[in-house]
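User: Look at the shape:
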Amino acid sequence: MAKKLLLIDPVLETSLNFNSCRLLNFLSVPRISLSYIAALTPPDWDTKIIIEHNEPANLEDADLVGITAVTSPAPRAYEISEQYRRKGIKTVMGGIHASMLPDEAIQFVDSVVIGEAEPVWRDLIHDFENNELKRFYQGERTSLENLVKPRRDLYNSYKYKVIDYVQTARGCPMDCEFCSVPTLHGRTYRQRPVEEVLDELETLHAMNVLFLDDNIFGYGEKAEERAIQLFRRMKERGLNKRWFSNVGIDFADNPDVLKYAREAGCFMILIGFETLNEETLQGMHKVRNLKVGVRNYKEVIKKIRDHGITVVGTFVFGNDEDSKDVFQRTIEFILDSKIDIAEGTISTPFPGTRLYNRLKQEGRLLLTNYPDDWRHYNLFEPVFRPKHMTPDELMEGVNQIYKHTTSGLTSLRRAFNSAIQTRNLFAGVIACLGNRAIGSLWLQNYEYVKNSLTSVIRDSGLSYPITEAESCEAESARGR
């Protein structure tokens, strides 16, 4: 009888109402790593992928269970693992959280894959079959040439017939303080061969494609040339895909990039603007945004929209350089710049980042009952003491941004502008639905987060911003 492998992507277990927003739940990204792992599993195994956004992990029988998780669902991942282990079933965990904290993860699973799993997965299966499963497997960063074809057939949900997911590159040479991507995937930008990406795209039934790259545009002149080649070849092959991806802010610098991206079917891109304060960008070490300059943000948005591409901009609040006026200035920028969709999140110190290490050293983390408290590291909740405001004021500031930029009437006005400037009715519809969805999600969760946060802050006694003495000590530790 064939051995059975379950691969599980757990969902965040919390009172936060993430699943109430149908659009955002529909667009939730599966861990594409699971489909690669499934493809590397020997064919005599019966493999099943469970995405908890779509179906719960109901402890069905298996010989081996593999779990992947980012930070906020990590407690749920550990819970699932413990339930299976009590049944005598071996579990293995990988993904960014386990890779950053393998010593924590191994307390709840039988084996931890650190880093990229492709180079070690076949060895792990071999060891399991011979009752020699190791506690840790260190996956080296692999070449992206000749990757196995991901097992998309194991994603059972209808939504994957409507929107599909492709990765064309890994790694980032930047060194942003809040980001763990360079730690996991390295600071070398590794690219898949263009023709292999095109071959994969041709196999997809879905018209809509989300490129999972941290930046499909890449870094440097060679990466830029490669991006143009990819876009041109997508058009030449007549793939007729409508696609969306993350890009860097310098995506707008080269008119040819914009031209060929649009001709290849790009309808929307996401840019991490992060902040309107250049001092904050310096603290983040967000070099590319500094090079372009905050004063040119509006021009960047205009250039991209003039090519018929919708712009999603993300902003992060609670940074050390943020004063209380940052919220009103951001509201004005969102409305004045005509940006199609804007998303505001709270600065979150994820494990494995320099931001986490610094705030921990400065004694500013509020929620440290790990692993249970990892569920609060979700971009919605302040988990540390901001420098110039209380956590409660931080929450209320972000709340005001959503109130003023995603109301029904404001979203309609912004959507109308999007449709006119991009000359694309679909862009207007997406802008309206996107703003209403993220605004609704934030506002629905606001009272719960505020109440739970108030309880935590009251119990900790740390409801105030850091003192002047603490600020000087922090600046000294930061080397500024």
In short: The longest helix spans residues 425-460. Residues 20-26 have pLDDT under 50 and may be disordered. Residues 3-139 form a domain with the Rossmann fold fold (CATH 3.40.50.2300). The longest strand covers residues 266-274.
